[in-house]
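Q: How would the C-alpha cells look for this protein?
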Amino acid sequence: MLSRTADHLFWMNRYTERAENTARLLDVNYQTSLLPQSEGVALAGWQGLLSISELMSSYREKHGDIRAEKVMAFMVKDESNPSSILSCLTAARENARAVRGTLTTEVWETLNQTWLEVKRKVKDGEFEEDPAQFFEWVKFRSHLSRGVTVGTMLMDEALHFMRLGTFLERADNTARLVDVKFHAVQSDFYGTANEKDQEYDFYHWSAILRSVSGFEVYRKVYRDVIKPERVAELLILRADMPRSLHASLNEVVSNLKMVANDQSSETQRRAGKLRSELEYGCIDEILATGLHAYLTQFLDRVNDLGAHISQDFLIPTPV
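A: Here is the predicted structure in C-alpha cell form.
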C-alpha cells in the first residue's frame, strides 16, 4: 500500500476517535460540574482538562479567563483549535475524501454525513441547547463509523491501518481522561482517597465510568462500591475493558503485526514492551509511584510509538 494512502486511513480514524474522546472528556466534566461542589473545585476540573489536552496556552490567548461555557465552545466548535470536535470531524472527512476509492460507499457516506450534520448542529446552536445530548450524538456517530468499517471493509492492510489509528488514539485519550479526573484532586494520586477528597464521591467516579461506558462493567467486575484505585485499575490494566490502556495496546500490537515490514521491528518491539508492562502490571505498584507520573510517561511513550509508526509506514516524519 502507498504510504500516502496508509497515512490518510490512519489519520482518518485517529481524528474520528479523537472527536469521540474529546466528547467524552467534555461530557465527564460537564456532568460533574452539575453536582454540588465549590467554585474552586469546578475551576480545577476545567483547568485540568485544558492542561492535559495541551490546549491551555492557545485557550488563554483567545479567551483569557477559564469559564466552563468558553472551554466547551473552544473544544467543540472553534475551527482555530485543531483538536476541537468540529475540526477533528472535518479532518476525518478530508482524509476520507483523499482515499475515497479505498473506502466502501457505506464508510464514506457515514463520515460525510457526520461532517454535514455536525456543521448544521453547530450553526443551529444545538450544542448550546443541550451539551449532553450533543456529546452523545458525537459518540454515537463514532460508534456507527467503527461498526460500518468493520462490517463492510475488506480485511486487508487498509483496515489494519484504520484500526491502528483508532486504538493508538484511544490509548492516548483514555490516559488523558483518567489523568484529568485524578488530576482534579489537585495532587498526584497514591492510592485510597483520604477524607479531604470526600467531595469526589460516588457520583464523581461514576461519572468518569459512564464517560467510557464502564459503569456497568465496573459493577460486573468488582461488585462493590466505586473506589478510585479500582477505577484506575479498570481503565489501565483490565484487558477485557474495551477502552482500557491494556485493551488498546493489544489491538495496536496485533494490527502492527498484520502490516509489519522490513523496518518495523523496532516499532513492534516498543509496542510489545509497552503492552507487556500493562499485561503484567499491578495497580498497587503504579499508585506507589504516583498515577499522574505513570500516565505522563505512558503518554510520552504512546506519542513516541506514533512517531515510529509514521516513520515506518506513513509519510515520513522526524522521530
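The mean pLDDT is 89.

The two ends are 22 Å apart (CA to CA).

Upvote if useful.
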